[in-house]
């Protein structure tokens, strides 16, 4: 799949016969897209009872205004990535960005991704606390990682979070 990114797009409200509410995206004087909710009269004519969002994208214009780009690629990794999750109890003042920064500082070479996938505040937690569920993706591009390697890295990350942010492993 090729991803096309267009720089310098500005959006403005637009009047359009097929839309009740529309935005037009332009680069300079070049219209590249119109996006909006299909008009209620059209929906009624086709007996559609739910709102419909529609986009007209002018690909020919986008291709014309894009500068030539050199295509680059990277071969897929030969060795599998490993994902580990931690559920940590922290003070409410702690931000996810601090956790992410500390994780990358703890493991510079093999940590590929840090992702927050759940935040919980409420019942069964002490006052002023919240729970973050975080995934860590590790990968070595030269070999398959062992369980012991992964466990050691995760222990190092967990210890850093505990020491510097007061994090506790949630059970």
CATH topology of the largest domain: Alpha-Beta Plaits
For the biggest sheet, the summary is: 4 strands, antiparallel
Number of domains: 2
Number of helical segments with 4 or more residues: 4
List the defining traits of the structure above.
4-stranded antiparallel β-sheet; 171 residues; Alpha-Beta Plaits; 4 helices; alpha+beta; extended
Report on the structure:
The protein has 171 residues and is of the alpha+beta class. It folds into two domains: 56 residues, no CATH class; 88 residues, Alpha-Beta Plaits (2-Layer Sandwich), CATH 3.30.70. 25% of the residues lie in helices and 35% in strands. Strands 1-2-3-4 form a four-stranded antiparallel sheet. The two termini are 41 Å apart. The model has no long low-confidence stretch (mean pLDDT 89).
How does the SSE layout of this entry go?
Layout lengths: L9 E5 L4 E9 L2 E9 L1 H6 L7 E5 L1 H7 L16 E10 L4 H11 L4 E10 L8 E10 L8 H19 L2 E2 L2
Antiparallel strand pairs: 1-2, 2-3, 3-4, 5-7, 5-8, 6-7
Give a brief description.
This protein is an alpha+beta fold and 171 residues long. It has two domains: 10-65, no CATH class; 82-169, Ferrodoxin-fold anticodon-binding domain (Alpha-Beta Plaits).
């Amino acid at each position: 799949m090729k991803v096309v990114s267009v720089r310098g797009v500005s959006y403005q409200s637009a009047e359009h016969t097929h839309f009740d509410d529309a935005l037009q995206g332009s680069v300079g004087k070049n219209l590249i897209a119109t996006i909006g909710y299909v008009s209620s009269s059209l929906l009624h004519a086709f007996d559609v009872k739910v709102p419909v969002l529609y986009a007209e994208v002018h690909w020919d214009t986008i291709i014309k205004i894009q500068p030539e780009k050199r295509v680059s690629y990277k071969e897929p990794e030969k060795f599998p990535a490993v994902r580990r999750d931690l559920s940590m109890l922290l003070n409410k003042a702690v931000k996810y960005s601090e956790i992410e920064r500390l994780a990358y500082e703890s493991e510079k070479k093999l940590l590929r991704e840090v992702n927050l996938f759940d935040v919980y505040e409420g019942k069964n937690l002490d006052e002023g606390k919240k729970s973050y569920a975080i995934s860590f993706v590790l990968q070595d591009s030269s070999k398959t990682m062992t369980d012991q390697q992964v466990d050691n890295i995760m222990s190092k990350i967990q210890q850093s979070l505990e020491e510097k942010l007061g994090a506790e492993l949630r059970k």
